[in-house]
């Protein structure tokens, strides 16, 4: 089965594929942050020292900080969603394990009662044959 990031999901619930997907998203976010820090507009605006340009530089820096903050919040929300999904998956796996155990127990009981029914029929057949033989011996004498 294929995971979100295209990796194989293991038997332990596929948490490796989901974690690698989060790691890929974090790496992309880090690359985006580094590209925002070294953007050409920021380098051009920070090179000028006039009073009017200081306000522009402050706006550019505050916009960059705001973008970085929004990006960081987005990453945190993604990680929190991942944790919630992982908890839900673990709970669902636990519920399914309990259901499988109950089904196995039910199947064992069905097998045992089926065997006992067969044994009871064999015993009933043996008793009826014995009684039939006694009836013929009593009638023959």
Keyphrases for this structure?
disordered N terminus; about 140 residues; single chain; mainly alpha; membrane
The major β-sheet equals: none
Low-pLDDT segments, ≥5 res: 1-12
Order of helices and strands, N to C? Answer: HHH
Question: What is the SS-derived class?
Answer: mainly alpha
Task: Count every helix, treating DSSP H or I runs of 4 or more residues as helices.
Answer: 3
Helix amount, in percent?
over 70%
What's the assembly state of these chains? single chain
Total strand segments: 0
- Strand portion: under 5%
Q: Using only CA atoms, what is the Rg?
A: 37 Å
* Distance linking N and C termini: 78 Å
The gross shape turns out to be rod-shaped
Query: How many structural domains?
Result: 1
Mean pLDDT: 75
Structure report:
The chain is rod-shaped. It is mainly α and 141 residues long. Helix 1 packs antiparallel against helix 3. The chain has one domain.
Give the helix/strand layout:
Layout: H1 15-37, H2 40-46, H3 51-140
């Amino acid at each position: 089965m294929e995971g979100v990031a295209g990796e194989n999901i293991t038997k332990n619930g596929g948490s490796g594929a989901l974690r690698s997907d989060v790691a890929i998203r974090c790496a992309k976010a880090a690359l985006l942050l580094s590209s925002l820090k070294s953007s050409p507009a920021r380098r051009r605006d920070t090179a000028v020292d006039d009073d009017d340009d200081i306000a522009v530089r402050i706006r550019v820096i505050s916009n960059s900080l705001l973008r970085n903050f929004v990006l960081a919040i987005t990453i945190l929300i993604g990680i929190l969603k991942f944790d919630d999904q992982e908890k839900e998956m673990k709970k669902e796996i636990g519920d399914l394990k309990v259901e499988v155990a109950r089904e196995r127990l039910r199947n064992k009981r069905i097998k045992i009662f089926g065997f006992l029914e067969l044994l009871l029929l064999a015993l009933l057949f043996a008793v009826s044959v014995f009684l039939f033989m006694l009836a013929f011996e009593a009638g023959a004498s």
